[in-house]
Amino acid sequence: MAALSPEMARLLAVKELRRRKLAGLPFPEKVRAVVQLQRIVAPILRARGRQVRVWNIEESAARRPPGTP
Questions:
Q1: What confidence category does residue 46 fall into, taking pLDDT thresholds of 50, 70 and 90?
Q2: What is the chain's Cα-based Rg?
Q3: Residue 64 C-alpha from the chain's centroid
Q4: What is the rounded average pLDDT for all residues in the chain?
Q5: Please, which domain of life does this record's source organism belong to (predicted)?
Q6: How would DSSP label each residue in 3-60?
Q7: Helix, coil or strand: residue 1
Q8: What letter does residue 68 receive in the DSSP assignment?
Q9: Phi first, then psi: what are they for 63, rounded to 5°?
Q10: Buried b vs exposed e over 34-65: b needs ≥16 C-beta within 10 Å?
Q11: SS3 of 69, please?
Q12: 3-state DSSP call for residue 62?
């Protein structure tokens, strides 16, 4: 198998770094990321005739530390 080009090796390293950064996020941040992706893809899926439901989360509640009202 041929060796990776320097550019491809750099891209894979950056991808791995981003994956580790996302994995280290607190759970509420991960949920917000999922909701953001849902909002981005919803119009596309609706245009294809799919029924889509984006999660409704309260931004202020999602940013509070756990255990606080």
A1: very high
A2: 18
A3: 20
A4: 89
A5: Bacteria
A6: PPPHHHHHHHHHHHHHHHHHHTS-HHHHHHHHHHHHHHHHHHHHHTT---------HH
A7: coil
A8: -
A9: -95, -10
A10: ebeeeeeeeeeeeeeeeeeeeeeeeeeeeeee
A11: coil
A12: helix
